[in-house]
Amino acid sequence: MVYKRNYIQRGDAFNIEGNEISFDCMTELVFADRDDLSAWTASLGVDEIARDEESFIDRAATRQRPGRSARPVGSMSVMLWSVLRG
After folding, report:
1. Does residue 13 come out as left (phi exceeding 0), alpha (psi in the -120 to 50 range) or beta?
2. How many angstroms separate the CA atoms of 53 and 82, rounded?
3. N or C end of the chain: which has fewer CB within 10 A?
4. Is 61 exposed, middle or buried, given 0-12, 13-18 or 19+ CB atoms closer than 10 A?
5. CA 61 vs CA 36, 40, 41, 50, 57: distances in Å
6. Residue 19 and residue 8: Cα distance in Å, rounded?
7. Which of 37, 15, 17, 19 is nearest to 28 (CA)?
8. CA–CA distance from 35 to each of 8, 43, 60, 75 (Å)?
9. What is the pLDDT of residue 86?
């Protein structure tokens, strides 16, 4: 599994979209295949994760897009765009 989390750097010279970007961080998860994605999802303590996320993420504003990843061929990815609290 690949796990990446990138945060928007507001005011950075390379951030040409500026304040038009409607999220604070983007998380990418890549799994070998759909079975690995399903197994990972099934293993989550969903209530525990929700309680943890409530302390720093506006969950109602989080968007998600599952799909196929370009590398490696056949892998599955999940992208999350989150708005941080505070």
Report:
1. alpha
2. 10
3. C
4. middle
5. 27, 23, 20, 14, 8
6. 10
7. 37
8. 31, 12, 27, 10
9. 67
Report the C-alpha gap between 25 and 41 in whole angstroms: 21
For the stretch 43-86, pLDDT in tens is 876 787 778 888 888 888 888 877 665 556 568 888 888 888 76
How many angstroms separate the CA atoms of 25 and 6, rounded? 5
pLDDT at 5 over 60: yes
Whole-number pLDDT of residue 10: 80
> Considering only CA atoms, which of 83, 84, 3 is closest in space to residue 36?
3
Q: Distances in Å between the alpha carbon of 2 and those of 9, 19, 38, 75, 77?
A: 22, 29, 15, 11, 9
Q: Which amino acid is at 15?
A: N
